[in-house]
Amino acid sequence: MDKRTIIGIVLIAVILILTPLYQKWVVGTLPQQEGTDTLSVGEHKITSPEKDTIAATRLESSDTADLEPDTMISATGKVTPKVSSKKIYVHTDKFDVILSTAGGDIVSAKLRGIYDDSGKRVNMFPRPLGGPNCEWTLIADDKVISTTGINFVMDKDSIVIDEDNRRDAVTLAGILPDGSMIQRRYEFEYGTYNIRQKILVVAEDSGKVFDEGILWLKSGLLPSEKNIGWDIRELAAYYKIGEEVDKVKPSRKKPSTAIDGATDWIGITSKYFTNILLPDNLLGASGIRTNTYWFTDTISHKDIPLVQVGLYHRIGENKFSKSYLIYSGPRDYFILKHYGRKLDKIVDLGWWWLSPITKLLLNFLKILYKVVPNYGWVIIIFTFLMKLLLLPVAHTQMKSMKKMKKIQPLMRSIQERYRDEPQKLNVELMKLYKKHGVSPLSGCLPLLAQMPIFFALYRALSSGFQFRAQPFIFWIKDLSQRDPYFVLPIVMAITMFVQQKISITDPKQKMMAYIMPVVFLFFFYRLPAGLVLYWTVFNMLSVVHMLWVEHKWVESDEIPAEAVVEQEPEK
User: Fold this and answer.
1) DSSP three-state, residue 365
2) Helix (H) or strand (E) holding 212
3) Cα 317–286–264 angle (5° rounding)?
4) Helix 355-371 to helix 445-463 angle, to the nearest 10 degrees?
5) Structural domain boundaries of the chain?
6) How far is CA 106 from CA 97, 110, 190, 218, 318, in A?
7) Region for 437 from its dihedrals, namely left if φ exceeds 0, alpha if ψ lies in -120 to 50, beta otherwise
8) Which of 262, 269, 467, 538 fits a disulfide with 274 by CB distance 3.0 to 4.6 angstroms?
9) Residue 442 has what DSSP assignment?
10) What sign does the CA torsion over 69, 72, 73, 79 have?
11) How many CB atoms lie within 10 A of CB 3?
């Protein structure tokens, strides 16, 4: 094989090898700093994932909205009887929320107009294993106090948030087991996915001190997409301590994590959704806590991690108040960026050098969508623009290919003359390329130029919420998922085969015309349909361009026949 064949194979190998490694790097478990918090780690009984993985039927949104278990598990691990409770119904333009006087808890939050793969509304508090969702736990005098099992009283039983009533709130009050008073106030605002929770706790005895406290989000998130494996890989806990944003992946070896430090926020994510606990005060918490339980989904037969997260506080007072913003909604770059405090880092946009390109691409595609409200056509328009941008590079490459065809006799002559002198052969070939303005690497330039855009578009389609459940035409109902009938990958492979047949000039490279389309077909059939659409249309445009150059462009620098004679081997 010559150099061009080897380069082509190496490029294919690089694409096939690096992409899985990149995916593994994105979803891989990061190092965790262990803490010594006895409240969240020592006091919780963590189910052993090796021996006691829970088998549970996947509970859809409608199944869990009104779920009230007969018993509840508190922070101490004790089972307490279910308390008699009432529900408060909150309707906003973004979600329908159900609160409960049992524990002053959030029972469910179903998003409006956003559905899972089964056609049911996405529930941000699904409670697949029951128990509390939003639990407060305190330590005082070495005793753990929990809101679980406390029956609160409420000031309202329903709220409607709309343009006429843009802000409203529900206040619940209760008495903790030690006699302390607790008040939980939930505030809602029109046009946002926000639930603001304000906590006030006052000890019965002025001499009593609350040492520590944790606000937990225990519900976890369930997979919502058709490709459940993609969703499970994205289940994680993101947090910001100091100025650094990091994440904890579910781990069977270490199901609990405790990290102390000035903490700004913590959140749990699935592929397209997130719940975030954000104190009103910047760096207003003392650390983060996570727990992971595993259960088996009897529909997909996959083990699903239920990730619980908590904000840890050192208190040291006999009364205190805290205020948090609970964001429960899409894992959308544009929405989260609006909040600041690096919340947009929850959306994975790729490596440090790729992230700016992905952001630019997301913004550009969003602008095009305002003009053409179909992301399939937006991607096609973007592909045309990319082809125009890369046209000079592609045209230079095609001119080089034409010249390569013309100097084939000279190349064969040189190869015959110096077949026993490899070093001399390379030197003479380089002289020949230089003399006629030919670059043997020119065929790789368009592919290399596309790679940053390709990876950025992959990240955009994989992480961009605006592409979720976006249809194109006919059978393509979701551009963020793979083509269900593999039509686009097959068309892409055919266009690549045509492209190779036109471009390959050396008979020794003809096998590449058959190998590359098959390899790319194997690689592309699993990727989002939007990405395959981009590559397919780009290939089609390249074929048209190549045919035009082949039939219309005339090389003025003809190689005289005597030049071939001059290169004949000496007798």
Assistant:
1) helix
2) strand 210-217
3) 125
4) 70
5) 32-343, 374-552
6) 7, 11, 18, 11, 26
7) left
8) 269
9) G
10) negative
11) 11
Q: In whole angstroms, what is the distance from residue 571 CA to residue 450 CA?
A: 48
Please name which of 280, 290, 215, 216 lies closest in space to residue 251, comparing C-alpha atoms: 290
Q: Is the CB of residue 478 less than 8 Å from the CB of residue 227?
A: no
Q: Which CATH class name applies to 32-343? A: mainly beta
* Cβ neighbours of 180 (radius 10 Å): 20
Residue that has been written with the tokens 């005793």 in this structure? 143
Which among 112, 81, 117, 116 is positioned nearest to 96, based on CA atoms? 112
Please count the other Cβ atoms lying within 10 Å of the Cβ belonging to residue 419.
10
d(CA 236, CA 251): 10
Query: pTM for the complete prediction?
Result: 0.79
Distance separating alpha carbons of residues 135 and 76, to the nearest angstrom: 12
Give the pLDDT score at 442: 56
Which structure tokens are listed for 382?
């973007």
Spatial distance between the Cα atoms of 79 and 100, rounded to a whole number of angstroms: 19
Report d(CA 35, CA 259) in Å as an integer.
5
Query: Residue 500: which H helix or E strand, with range?
Result: helix 487-503
Q: What is the pLDDT of residues 441-485, one digit of tens each?
A: 555 666 677 788 889 999 998 899 999 999 999 899 999 999 999
397, 402, 408, 414: CA torsion to nearest 10: -50
Contact 531, 457 (CB under 8 A): yes
| 62 contacts: CB under 8 Å, gap ≥ 6 | 120, 121
Across the range 288-301, mean pLDDT stands at 88
Nearest to 69 by CA among 58, 60, 78, 81: 81
| pLDDT tens column, 231-277 | 999 999 999 999 999 999 999 999 999 999 999 999 999 999 999 99
Instruction: Give, for 451, the enclosing helix (H) or strand (E).
Output: helix 445-463
When pLDDT is cut at 50, 70 and 90, the band that residue 427 belongs to is: confident
The span from the CA of 119 to the CA of 511, in Å, is: 47
Pairing of strands 134-140, 143-146: antiparallel
Q: What distance lies between CA 455 and its chain's CA centroid?
A: 13
Cβ-proximal residues to 249 (8 Å cutoff; 6+ apart), any chain = 27, 28, 29, 30, 236
Other beta carbons within 10 angstroms of residue 413's beta carbon come to 20
